[in-house]
Specification:
Helix 3 packs across helix 4, helix 5 runs antiparallel to helix 6 and helix 6 crosses helix 7. The chain is globular and about 50 Å long. It has an eight-stranded mixed beta sheet, sandwiched between helices. The protein has one domain: 3-Layer(aba) Sandwich (Rossmann fold), CATH 3.40.50. With 305 residues, it is α/β, with parallel strands linked by helices. The longest helix has 18 residues. The protein is built from ten helices and eight strands.
Length: 305
């Protein structure tokens, strides 16, 4: 379904909609915020099912410029070279919109569904948005979970060269197969040493996502919103929500030091580093991640009961 949030049409999948149990709507809510260029369907179903089995109502949504939500094509294609130069010179790039705008989208989803409070869980860029949600509406955030994300602080190590090259490599051809193959090669670069999903399953997962929506310029606009969010790091000390930071120790996009920095800046944050995990949610790590997340959610839910 679509809801109006922050003036945009945002595609939402709410587990309460598909449940025959009227009590499902009264469960504690987990708001999942997906990462750069990804869609709500890219949350692994087994991960979502673990949350449902744990007694939670799960709300997912497509960020602006992704999936079935509003695409802001009228804002044009960002000039990444000049914006990157601004960043290297210590200036904040000025993109079509800010991460704060994407944060308002997420809050707008809660408002549209009349959800007063929620556990907020974000992956990668979604973790950055989740941090800002915890800063903007602290009274409504039961807990914060920042997964394979970053504080955005200056001086943190950046992506490996091979990953940057992979992200900037243009698609060779305009067919769905060409797009799938380009995404496949990038996902392989982002995988950790203990990635378990087969190449065939990964390609099928990517094809399903690309067939639903593919907007390279939208991804660029999201990317600039992330790069321009240079003030967040110094604000993280204000977060009051109980916080869990989870991160792969083999992450080639946002190195583990990014997680250590995030956890250091947020008062009382727990840090879970996962051996062999890259910048992906491989099934081999689901059990470790799910156990840690459920324990975190249960503890904070009990505190607010």
């Amino acid at each position: 379904m679509q809801v109006k949030a922050n003036g945009l049409d945002i595609e939402v999948l709410d587990s309460a909609q598909s449940s025959d149990d009227p009590a499902h709507r009264r469960r504690p809510v987990v708001l999942l915020i997906i990462g750069l260029g990804l869609q709500l369907i890219d949350w692994p179903q087994s991960f979502v099912q673990t949350l449902l089995d744990g007694g939670y109502r799960v709300v997912r949504f497509d960020n602006r410029d992704a999936g079935l939500s509003t695409h802001l094509s009228k804002l044009g294609k960002p000039h990444l070279f000049w914006l990157g130069l601004q960043y290297k010179l210590g200036l904040a790039p000025h993109g079509p919109y800010r991460l704060a705008d994407m944060t308002a989208d997420a809050v707008g989803v809660l408002d549209a569904l009349q959800i007063d409070k929620a556990h907020v869980v974000g992956m990668s860029m979604g973790g950055m948005i989740a941090q800002r949600v915890a800063l903007s509406i602290p009274q409504r955030v039961l807990s914060l979970s920042s997964m394979m994300s970053s504080s955005g602080a200056r001086g943190l190590p950046g992506p490996e060269t091979r990953v940057v090259k992979g992200m900037m490599t243009p698609v060779r051809g305009k067919t769905v197969d060409a797009v799938v193959e380009q995404h496949f090669q990038l996902f392989k670069l982002l995988s950790g040493t203990s990635h378990a999903i087969s190449d065939e399953a990964l390609r099928e997962q990517i094809r399903r996502s690309v067939s639903r929506n593919n907007d390279p310029e939208g991804v660029m606009r999201q990317m600039v919103a992330v790069a321009s969010d240079v003030s967040r790091a110094n604000l993280l000390g204000r977060i009051t929500a109980p916080t869990l930071v989870m991160h792969g120790k083999d992450d080639p996009l946002l190195p583990y030091a990014c997680a250590q920095d995030t956890a250091r800046r947020i008062p009382g944050a727990q840090l879970l580093g996962i051996d062999g995990m890259g910048h992906d949610m491989s099934p081999v790590h689901f059990k470790t991640m799910a156990q840690a997340l459920l324990a975190h959610l249960h503890d904070t839910t009990a505190q607010h009961a």
